[in-house]
Structure formats: structure tokens, C-alpha cells
Amino acid sequence: MHYFDYVADELHCEQVPVRRIAEEVGTPFYLYSHATLRRHFLAVQEAFPDTERLVCYSAKANTSQAILRLFADLGGGLDIVSGGELYRGLKAGFAPGRIVYSGVGKRVDEIDYALDSGILQFNVESFQELDLIDQRAAARNTIAPVAIRVNPDVDPKTHPYISTGLKKNKFGINHRDAPEAYRHADRLPHLEVVGIDCHIGSQITEVQPFRDALKSLMELIGELRGEGIDIRNLDIGGGLGITYGDEQPPDPGEYARTVMEVMAGSGLRLILEPGRVIVGNAGILVASVLYRKHSEDKEFVITDAGMNDLLRPSLYQAYHEIRPVRRRKRPEIRADVVGPICESGDFLAQDRQMPDLQPGELLAVMSAGAYGFCMSSNYCSRPRVPEVMVKDDQFHVIRQRERVADLIRGESLPPFVK
Questions:
Q1: What is the CATH number of the domain that holds 82?
Q2: pLDDT averaged over the chain?
Q3: Catalytic choice (56, 342, 374, 380)
Q4: How far apart are CA 67 and CA 59, in angstroms?
Q5: What's the CA gap between 289 and 380, in Å, rounded?
Q6: Helices first, then strands: H and E counts in the chain
Q7: Up-side HSE of residue 44: CA atoms within 13 Å toward CB?
Q8: Secondary element (H or E) of residue 53
Q9: 402 vs 323: CA distance, rounded Å
Q10: In terms of domains, do 267 and 304 share one?
């Protein structure tokens, strides 16, 4: 459910015509619906009514301050994977005790920052990381709360680039070695084992992989508790998929029933790390058609948005629905929607049956709220686009469009270059 709908054949975000925003801020730009963001966050939070839980929004999906602040105000926690995301989260108002730190490559300075901030837990991914966190905690005369990310070798049946729970993936400690990793952590004097963590992938569209992973975790928790290692937090990661095209992912309620069935009677505190499922369908990318081009074999719709603005189609061959901002009766064509970047991989859609859009028209790339702006770049020296949020009948630019002068900010010429 999202709040991007046609009203009298004009695409609106909540009560605001998309065309009106484009006229004021120019294109391309990202556009988010406040009502959709709020609805999706609460749908996850309220899906577990009788379970002690903490919904830690996965910051990597979208780190805009306005979005982070909204989730902090709704009582959420935050899942981070860098010191930069910790900084963003603290600035947005998340309490440190509601932040979990994931990721395979935490630097010393990032570990120190998290220890000094007093985060809820580190999700640790290797024996060497356990040792380093213990050393850094000792240097501060403190105790670091840790969970170990266990790789259950479960196939999430998603794109290989966003699969994270197979034994060939770089993430976590494999299930076979996990008991020894916990024993090792329990022996280290400046660590406190507080939980267990698992994340099997992203854009998962069925519940069975989650069930399989959780069953594996519950068996391990029973083994660890039998050895006197107290596991209190169960962090099941995120990964629940959304509808980009014809996918039919489970809703949060079905997902919650699966989780609660497997962990029933465990007394564990549940930590969730949803990202895409909250913000994915809450945002769109709005672009203008610059040119039409016909070659012997192809029809091209050339827009002012490219792979530097939205990388997912080029990186993952991901599908995003393309809608005209003004809907009207017109013939359809089969075309590639491409951008201005000097790469053959610069496309938003390929071989797509779509309305016959003409130069000067606006189009909306749907389901772009997750891994959109946060993966954008200045490739080809293109300033990054603005972000806009709508609430009811008002809109606000939550991130200004970069200027060309911003492209060289921080650069300097060495004395040996004249």
C-alpha cells in the first residue's frame, strides 16, 4: 500500500500533484510519501503485538535525516553498518541503546565510536572481530555487548548479490563454527554475550527461508543455553521483499506469525531489521524525457535521470515500474528507458512495453525509496538530485539539489601541480 495515485489522470503523492513539485524543484528528484513511510513502519511494529520486540530500521536502505527522524519518533531503533550511519542515527534522535551495529568490516575508529556511544549490541561476524572489540573495550575499561551473526546456509531464493545467508557468502560465522565462537566470546573478559543474529538476504518473497533459518537458530540457542551461555536477544535481520512488478511477498502479519510460531516460549527479545519493506514503495524517482531516439533494432526514451541517480537496474537488473506523470490515451511502444551516462549499462528499464512518452513529459520510476538516493553518485560529474517529502497537501525539500560547485568541494591542488 502506498500513496502514489492518479487523480484526474495526474499522478499525485498524497494530495500533491507530482507535476507541481517538478515545476518548483526541477528534475530529476526523489519523492517520498510521509503517510506511506509511517504506515509501513507501524505495520511491522504492530505485527508482533504480544512479543517483546524492537524494530531497528535498516539505515542502509535510506539514510535521509527526515526519514530517520520519523522512525525515531515512532519509537524505532536503528540497524547500522558504518560509523557514518551511527552519526546519522544519533543526529536523527535515535537513542544509542536502540542501535545495533552490523557489518563484516568494522574499523577500529568505528568500534570505538560505537563503544563510546553506548549502543545496544555489536553483531559480530568473525573470531578476529570478537578479539578486537574485546581489546577496544578493555582500553576503555568497559564491557561490549555482542551477538554473533550466524550463517545458517539457507537459500533465500533472491538475487545472488543480495543473498547473505549461504555458506559461500562473506557474512557471519557458519553454523558449524558458531558454538565455538560463542564459547570464545564468553571467555573474553570485556565482552558480554547478549544475543544471536542472522540475516539471510534481501527482497525475499516467501516465508519458508525465514522459517528454516529460525529453526536452525533456535536449536543453536538451546545448545548454548545448555552450556550456560545466556542468549537474550534474537536478531532475525530483515529481508522481507516488496512488490516491484508481479512479486507477491508475504505481508508483515504472515511473516510475524511464522516468526512467533518458531520462537514461541523462548522468552527471547526479538530484534528486527526491516529496510526495503518500509521505505521501498514509499518513494519514487521523477525524471523528464529529454529525447526520443530510434535505431534499427531499438526504440529509446532518453531521460535526465541515469544510473548515477538510480543504480539498481544496472547493478541488479532490477525491475522498476515506469509510469507517466500525466496519464492519457496514447499508443504503446517497446523501448529502453535510458539516461545520459556514457555507459551501455545506463538504463532504468529495458525492452519495456510502455506508453509512448515524448520529450518534455514527466515519468515516475516507482518503488525507488530503498537503495535509490543512498546508492547514487557523482559519476560523470553529475550533481546528486534533491529529495522531497510530502505530507498531506504540503511538500518540503529534505535535501537540496547539489550544485556544480559542490562537485569539487574538498579538493585542492598540490604545490607541484600548476
A1: 3.20.20.10
A2: 93
A3: 342
A4: 10
A5: 19
A6: 11, 21
A7: 31
A8: strand 53-58
A9: 26
A10: no
* Structural domain ending residue among the three candidates 259, 276, 293: 276
Q: Name residue, grid cell 536452525.
A: 216
Given a cut of 70, whether residue 346 has pLDDT beyond it is: yes
Which amino acid is residue 1, in one-letter code? M
Kindly report, residue by residue over 5-50, the tens digit of the pLDDT.
999 999 999 999 999 999 999 999 999 999 999 999 999 999 998 8
CATH code of residue 321: 2.40.37.10
Residue 342 catalytic? Answer: yes
**Which of 244, 276, 308 lies at the terminal end of a domain, its last residue?**
276
In the chain, the number of structural domains is 2
Question: Containing domain of residue 11, as a range?
Answer: 4-32+280-408
Per-residue burial over 64-79, b if 16 or more Cβ lie within 10 Å, else e, is bebbbebbbeeebbbb
Alpha-carbon gap, residue 72 to 159, rounded angstroms: 30
| 211/260 Cα distance (integer angstroms) | 10
207-243: pLDDT as tens digits: 888 888 889 899 999 999 999 999 999 999 888 888 8
171 and 48, same structural domain?
A: yes
Beta strands in 266-316 (DSSP E): 269-272, 283-294, 299-303
